[in-house]
Every structure is written in structure tokens, then in C-alpha cells.
Specification:
The chain is α/β, with parallel strands linked by helices. It has 6 helices and 10 strands; from the N terminus they run βαββαβααβββαβββα. Helix 2 packs across helix 3.
């Protein structure tokens, strides 16, 4: 046995059974439905307009607490800053609440826009070197969940990808799509999912990557198994779907 190293601690197998997930997809492909299939009670941070009708499917099964932050109603930096601070405070409160099992950001891209509006007062024409403190603030806010046993699901829209046309100073669409929002999200997550809908087979999802269990990467899961409990049980084979309901 090695001597104890000053300033180090011995690695032990993690006993935490929680997931920090990004779920991305096109409109009406099941992003929010997947998020709300996570264990309740749920603290839902509503940044968009896509909740109507979706939450109704779950309120009879679990407790869902909603905090709304529609930054489109604000018109100046002071209002955006106050709203962002209120969201941060609500997030930290939910993380400390022992009864909450899952937090959902819907959508995380809108949260990132609110953060930038709060700090810059605009979304465009911000010099890259000004982003350092704002990137750190947003990154550290997400990392707070790793100090808890909570699940976190960050819902993301998709945006078209572009490539520069050589010699023109212009860009053209590639026909591909990518996750919208904060660029470091993928690195901060334990798992990244892509949801989709096939007109013949229905709704499904693809596990793009998973830090805890790399063997599940690339797996496609069709309804009715395309839920948080089923996915979590694949990541942690020593658990069952009932453990995640």
C-alpha cells in the first residue's frame, strides 16, 4: 500500500446515482417530454414557450415546480441582469432543497442568451476576450450540480451549421444541424442525447456519449423506452427503472 500523499485523497468508486444530461433535438421531437420523465419532484426552469400541453402529461404522476424567466419581456440590461440573478438564486435554492431530485433547464440555450444579455446588454458585436468571465460564470453555475446528488437535464434546440465560402467573406449552410447554446455544454455533461422522430416508428433517442458507461454510446432507443428511467438503468446496470421514477 502506497504511503498517503500529502494533498491527495485515495480514489474510491462513486456511490452517486445521478445523471447530468444534455438532450438536443428539433422542434416537437420529445426533448421536454424526456426531461420530465426524470425522477420527481422536478424544479423546471422555463425559458421558452414550449411547455404548454407537455407538462399536463406529467402533473398527475409527479410534482413539478416551475420558475419562469421570459427575458423577451425585458428591454434593457438592468432588467436582464435582475432576471439572471433571480434565475441563479432559484437554481441554487433548488440545488439545496433536499426534496428536489431533478432540475430541468428548458431551454439551456435561452439561459445562455439571458446570461449574455445580463452581462453585455447585447448578443452581437461582443469582443471575444470579453467572454472569459461570462463563460466562467455560466460554466461554474452548471458545475454546482456536481456538488449534489441531483439530476440535471439541459434541453437544447438545434441550429444549422455554416461553412465559410473561400474568398467571399460569406458563409453557406451545410445542410447539417448542431446543438444551439453554450459551446462547452458537451464537456460539462455526463451524457449527451439526441432525440428524433421517425414517421414510421415514432419517437426515439440516440445516446451520443456517456462518461459513466461508454458501452452505451451509439445506442438507439425507441418509444416507449425512450425515457429517463430506462436510459439511466442502462448507464447503471445495477439499478432498475423503478429506482429512477
Amino acid at each position: 500500500m502506497a504511503k498517503e500523499l500529502k494533498g491527495f485523497y485515495k480514489a474510491e468508486k462513486s456511490q452517486l446515482r445521478r445523471l447530468v444530461i444534455s438532450v438536443e433535438g428539433m422542434e416537437r421531437e420529445g426533448k421536454t417530454s424526456f426531461a420530465l420523465s426524470a425522477p420527481g419532484p422536478i424544479a423546471l426552469f422555463d425559458m421558452d414557450i414550449g411547455l404548454e400541453g407537455v407538462v399536463d402529461k406529467w402533473v398527475d404522476e409527479k410534482e413539478i415546480y416551475i420558475a419562469s424567466f421570459d427575458y423577451r419581456d425585458a428591454t434593457d440590461q438592468d432588467e436582464w441582469e435582475a432576471m439572471w440573478n433571480r434565475m441563479r438564486g432559484s437554481y441554487l435554492t433548488a440545488l439545496k432543497d433536499k426534496s428536489i431530485r431533478t432540475l430541468v433547464w428548458d431551454t439551456a440555450g435561452e439561459a445562455w442568451e439571458l446570461c449574455r444579455l445580463a452581462r453585455f446588454g447585447k448578443l452581437q458585436q461582443v469582443r471575444p476576450h470579453h467572454y472569459g468571465p461570462v463563460n466562467a460564470e455560466f460554466r461554474d453555475m452548471i458545475r454546482k450540480v456536481y456538488e449534489t446528488d441531483k439530476n440535471l437535464v439541459m434541453v437544447h434546440k438545434m441550429k444549422p451549421t455554416y461553412v465559410d465560402v473561400k474568398g467571399t467573406g460569406e458563409a453557406t449552410r451545410t445542410g447539417e444541424w448542431e446543438r444551439a447554446g453554450f459551446s462547452d455544454i458537451g464537456y460539462l455533461m455526463q451524457m449527451n442525447l439526441r432525440v428524433w422522430r421517425n414517421l414510421d416508428e415514432g419517437f426515439g433517442l440516440t445516446i451520443r456519449d456517456c462518461r459513466q458507461n461508454a458501452s452505451v454510446a451509439g445506442i438507439d432507443i425507441m418509444e416507449p423506452m425512450n425515457t429517463f428511467p430506462f436510459v439511466a438503468a442502462q448507464v447503471f446496470p445495477d439499478t432498475s427503472t423503478e429506482d429512477w421514477e
